[in-house]
Amino acid sequence: MSKDMILILDLGGSQCMSAARKVRGEGVYCEILPSHVPVEALRSKKPRGLILVGAPREDASGEPALSREVFHLGVPVLCVGYAARRMNAILGGECRDTALSLQTAEVTFEPCALFEGLTRCERYVSRMDNIRPFPGGRVLATTPEGVAAAFGDEERQIYGMQFSAEQNDPDGLTILSNFCRGICGCEPWWNAQTYLDEELIRIQQAVGEEGSALMAISGGVDSTVCAALIHRAIGDRLHCLFVDTGLMRKGEPERVQAMFEAMRMPVEIVDARSRFLSALSSVTEGRDKRRIIDEVFVEVFEQEAARFPQADCLVQGTIYPDVIGSFGAPRIGVGVPAHGRFRVVLEPTRTLFKDEVRLMGELMGIPGEIIDRQPFPGPGLAVRCMGEVTEEKLAALRLADAIFREEIASAGLEKRLGQYFAVLMNAGVQKEYTVALRCVSAADAVSASAYRLPYDLLERVMARITSEVPSVSRVVYDITSKPPASIEWE
Fold it and tell me: Does the model's pTM come out above 0.70?
């Protein structure tokens, strides 16, 4: 991207993604990089400003790498929370004892460009220390206790805040807008339509007039939107494969085929069910299941790819959280290598968050029932089937999961929920299985809260599952949030 942009340096945790989504929501394009990235790489991006956010995990050893040179690039810098205290220490200030922790505090702002339009507001504070600002810096916001809630050097345009500005509140958005658009001078050019128009041109240029592309689709939101983008750019020179692993939900292969045909994008179904089930025989650990499924998927895809020697471009449905999670490692659905005979690797949704992917799909006219689909793990039902994966257990899980999803839809709750699914637990003393129901509300996959389903709905689901799935005699509901738990069980 050659237009105005902000770089967000990640010092750990999930805060950077939240901040980035809010910045983009203000029409300002931004990218996330790890805090240890070389200064030369930052300079080559030519950002209009830097935002440093995040904090190391409590169990992490040492502090995240952060060069002093970051503050001497000649562009405005905004440090938030832990990053503000770290910046203050690097530049010669003092951080003493913790003054406020896990509480609300009234913050009064001094007149300055960062807080233009604000006088005072109440903020939730994870932590504020008693500090002495670095040489050249001054206090820009205080609490009634006299704690420096914000500080900085306005001449050098270096700012630190001991509270978060990325939360979904008007004052937080005002601060971000003041920094990105006011102090950094960024033009608000970023929107889904602009991205779509420019990405179509990039795809056409990368593939060329004679090239063609091959993609393994999963039928999920990411791969469907990605395929639609490529198809709009190069038409029938895109070849789509759907590998039926036998680990999908009830009716999934047929649904995917019908869905793509309705969008006039032909797809070939590859039946590899017996191959995956055989490879998973006697495997009980979730990590081993994921590894084996990855390996078998790659083998199957490479064999099928040999039938398309004319396809010189590989399409991957990577989205931005995948990139941030690994900071650059290639990834697709279950796992397809980004190497070999392919001339070009296309990742048209690589810099998009999930909500932006959905918006892109809406712009291209993809039906809502596809755009609103909930996430589904790459390894499929294998990681929702505790212990060894067998055809008997998969059949029971498919039916239980279908019943749960039907009842959620009948109750009109599907659009309120982030994910909802069934998990098959190992057989108990009666040699019958227990089904665990999982239902969370989440804006993204970083954190999630267990949803309080109506008890009468849970009773209906329990009654149907125990009567319609012969091998299941017990149904339980998982009320654990993330963290401490993960959304998936394995």
Answer: yes
